[in-house]
Every structure is written in structure tokens, then in C-alpha cells.
């Protein structure tokens, strides 16, 4: 066979991960984010236990990370027709957050359990990493090129806004979530104010606190 550089071989791992996650979402309400969830999803797609463990060695934690990545990609796809340069910065952030929230709402029942799973102490670090990655993807779409400490404060604050807005959307609906989002954006009219409102030393503490509050009820995260 002649190798054609324009023909890409299927990525078995990526395709199987996607199928595994889709199958898992059908079982989340029954099994929660547990090893039983991974086993049920693997059975659905005819995947051996050994291959399932190879793809998701950390079980539900890996599935949780795959779900966050799926929603990040869906949000960016929804934002693709939008020209961020035509918007004010606050409008870019509003559009980005709403796109990410809508992506998550496509799997709302699973996301409710997902948030509770990530709020557990053993999973809090993973939750912070996933929120950070989502915020980073949205800031990059918005055109952020900061490489100094503003890079970190922007992402930390946006991660917290994402978490609380999603929690409110799940529990109180879209109007309440949008009102919350608008209040938060109004409180940070300029990035300098964002930085002034949260020192680098307590970024992780603030985000961890947000996740902890989500575990006991989204309304407390407002």
C-alpha cells in the first residue's frame, strides 16, 4: 500500500474513549461516577475489562475528565462563528461562559452527579484542574495573550465564575444563571479589578471553596 500523508488512520483510543463516555452517560444516574459506571459502559460497547482499564486507568476520574473535555470542545465549536474581536472583552467572556454552560446542559443529569463527584475531597484537585482547563480554553478563544501573573488570575476567576454559574443553572434555571453571570461580570469591569479582587496566594483556596460549597448545594455558591 502506498502511504498517503493526507489519509489519517483512525485514532482507536480517541474514538473508543468517546464511545465509552457516551455509553457511561447513560448509566450515571444508576451507578454514579464509580468503577461500576466504567464496567457498565465497557459492556455496552463490547470493550474488554482490560481495554477499559487501559483507556481509563483511574476509572470514573478519567471519565469525568473526558466529559469536561467534550464540553470544552462543544463550547468552542459553538463559539466558532463568533468573532471575538468584534466584541468588548466583557461580551466575549459572557458569550464564552454561556456557550460552556449550554454545552454542559446537554448532559445535565450526568453533570449534576459530576459536580458532586468532583466536590469530594479526594477529587477536588482534579476538579480544579478541569475548571482551570475550561477557563484557559475560553480565555484563549477570547484572545488573551497574557503571560504574566494576569494569566493566572484571569483563569482562576473565570474558573470560579464557570463553576458557580453552572451550579445555579442546574438548580435555578437559565434566567437566574444569567443574572448571576451578569452580576459577576459587572463586578469586574476591568482585568485590573479582577486581579485586585483576588491575590495569587489564595487562588486555589477560593476555587477549592467553591467546589466544596457545590457539594452541599449550588445555592450556597452564589
Verbal overview:
This protein has helices at 12-25, 28-31, 35-44, 49-55, 60-79, 89-105, 108-119, 124-142, 149-172, 174-186, 191-197, 203-215. With 222 residues, the protein is mainly α. The chain folds into two domains: 1-57, no CATH class; 60-221, no CATH class. It is globular, with a radius of gyration of 19 Å. It starts with 11 loop residues before the first helix and ends in a 7-residue tail after the last helix.
Q: Based on helices, strands and strand pairing, what is the structural class?
A: mainly alpha
Tally of distinct domains: 2
Shape label: globular
Query: What is the radius of gyration computed over CA atoms, rounded to a whole number of angstroms?
Result: 19 Å
Mean pLDDT: 86
Strand segment count:
0
As a percent range, the share of helical residues equals: over 70%
Distance between the termini: 60 Å
List keywords for this structure.
222 residues, mainly alpha, 2 domains, 72% helix, 0% strand, globular, disordered C terminus
Task: Summarize this entry quickly.
This protein has two domains: 1-57, no CATH class; 60-221, no CATH class. 72% of the residues lie in helices and 0% in strands. It is built from twelve helices and no strands.
